[in-house]
Amino acid sequence: MPKTHQLEPGRQIRLADCPTTAGTFHDNRKQAEKDFAKLRKKIALLQHRLYSEGKQSLLVVLQAMDAGGKDGTIRRVFEGVNPQGTRVTSFKVPSKEELAHDYLWRIHKAAPQRGMIGVFNRSHYEDVLVVRVEKIVPEAIWRRRYDEINTFEKHLSDNSTRILKFYLHISKSEQRERFQDRLDDPTKNWKFSLDDLEKRKLWNEYQAAYEDALNRCTTEWAPWFAIPADQKWYRNLAIARVLHATLVEMDPQFPASEDLESVVID
Ligand code: ATP
Ligand code: MG
């Protein structure tokens, strides 16, 4: 089912109860990879329609603990889509200029225009995650952000943007393996930062912050999905299924052509 792993508004989840490995609709890797390859092609065709139609946009939000697979998801799931119709924005520590504005300013600027798929690699959710755990702003300020985020997302949704939010759920032991791999493989050293280990020490605090973000910001107009992400093949397929089903639902149409019957090219 495409809606597998979708959270329901008002129904509280505990991340500890959410699986980090496959099993719900697929446990066969070979078949999953075949299904994924087919879906990717269909997604590319639908994106082409979305772009040509130019009336609605799709926003894909990706959040995860470090080494959770955001980069890999973007690389694999969007392989083959027309780069002209897709825009990836990675949100890092805010710049001086960004900090001089409200926290949604840089986010709204990056929201996809009609016809586009926008992918957020990290997002406004950092403002209730790292900002909360690292105590960057007082509690009274981050607490009110859940409502602000819901209102902001409603605004985007009311203005022709479909929103899908994926939390890539990995286990603490999988994170250890991925970090170790980044240390052992010279081609992956660049991905490792000592700061990642500091964050790993705060694993439980981050999980609690994620739990609140998922529970408080799952709405009819902007659902969260808790994707089991220990196995990349399953993660890719699960996300591709949701994307495909959503694009089918959006049903983009090629613009009707004008009366071209009488056009003669000499
Ligand atoms: P990778 O997972 O591949 O390391 P990354 O997304 O972690 O990629 P980095 O440049 O390593 O990219 O880290 C970006 C950092 O910016 C993260 O630690 C994130 O928590 C932080 N960040 C993002 N948004 C905010 C924010 N609003 N306030 C404070 N820190 C933020
Ligand atoms: Mg990082």
Overall spatial form: globular
- What radius of gyration results from the CA coordinates? 20 Å
Structural class of the helices, strands and pairings?
A: alpha/beta
Residue share in β-strands = 5-15%
Could you describe the largest sheet, including whether it forms a barrel?
5 strands, parallel
Give the termini distance in whole angstroms.
52 Å
Return residue spans where pLDDT drops below 50 for at least 5 consecutive residues. none
CATH C-level label: Alpha Beta
For the record, the count of structural domains works out to 1
Helical amount among residues, as a percent range? 40-55%
Query: Are any ligands bound, and if so which?
Result: adenosine-5'-triphosphate, magnesium ion
Number of helices: 11
Please name the fourth-level CATH homologous superfamily: P-loop containing nucleotide triphosphate hydrolases
SSE string, helices as H and strands as E = HEHEHHEHHHEHHHEH
Side-by-side strand order of the widest sheet: 2-3-1-4-5
